[in-house]
From TrEMBL:
Protein name: Glutathione-dependent peroxiredoxin
Catalysis: reaction(s): a hydroperoxide + 2 glutathione = an alcohol + glutathione disulfide + H2O
InterPro entries: PRX5-like (IPR037944), Redoxin (IPR013740), Thioredoxin-like_sf (IPR036249), Thioredoxin_domain (IPR013766)
Organism from which the protein derives: Ramlibacter tataouinensis (strain ATCC BAA-407 / DSM 14655 / LMG 21543 / TTB310)
Catalytic activity, EC: 1.11.1.27
Keywords annotated in UniProt: Antioxidant, Oxidoreductase, Peroxidase, Redox-active center
This protein's record includes keyword Oxidoreductase: yes
Gene3D superfamilies in UniProt: Glutaredoxin
PROSITE patterns, per database record: THIOREDOXIN_2 (PS51352)
One GO CC term on file: cytoplasm
GO aspect biological process, one term: cellular response to oxidative stress
């Protein structure tokens, strides 16, 4: 399992773009984790699924509401990762009004989740392999802080906890 001091895995995520520009086409666009995190401080949080109750009601809104405080604390970007496809993440981004605040990144094949060891097997509930709920502060591609939730909990991966670590 990934730990503080480790580099993020060299995988490619997908991000749905609503508008064409800056070399991006409308629709899913690849995001090379190593390149996208190089030289930046990033607040990353992962969760089991788009449009699920805790994720939609608490987890994403906390990061959206605190986006300006994260910027003030030196965080360049906020990333939300979920084992969903880029189209679902794009629809969820519209629903949660994340534009300009949180990048909604699709880990459609769970490559990031598997590479970090942050997986949650929900096959018994018809949802397949998902991501554990967590948050991490990443500096220049390396994990500086890591908060992993116990199954079914939402206590340490919230925006306030990671924001305190970013300020720390």
């Amino acid at each position: 399992m990934i730990k503080v001091g480790d580099k993020l895995p060299a995988v490619t995520l997908q991000e749905y773009s609503e508008v064409e520009g800056e070399g991006c086409s409308i629709g899913p666009n690849p995001v090379d984790v190593a390149k996208a995190s190089a030289g930046k401080t990033i607040a990353v949080f992962g969760l089991p699924g788009a449009f699920t109750p805790t994720c939609s009601a608490k987890h994403v809104p906390g990061y959206v509401e605190n986006a300006s405080q994260f910027k003030a604390a030196g965080v360049d970007e906020i990333w939300c990762l979920s084992v969903n496809d880029a189209f679902v993440m794009g629809a969820w981004a519209r629903d949660q009004k994340t534009a300009g605040k949180v990048r909604m990144l699709a880990d459609g094949s769970a490559e990031f989740a598997k590479a970090t060891g942050l997986t949650l097997d929900l096959a018994g509930r018809g949802m397949g392999l998902r991501s554990t709920r967590y948050s991490m502060l990443v500096k220049d591609g390396k994990v500086a802080a890591l908060n992993i939730e116990a199954p079914g909990k939402f206590e340490v991966s919230d925006a306030q906890t990671l924001l305190a670590q970013a300020k720390g």
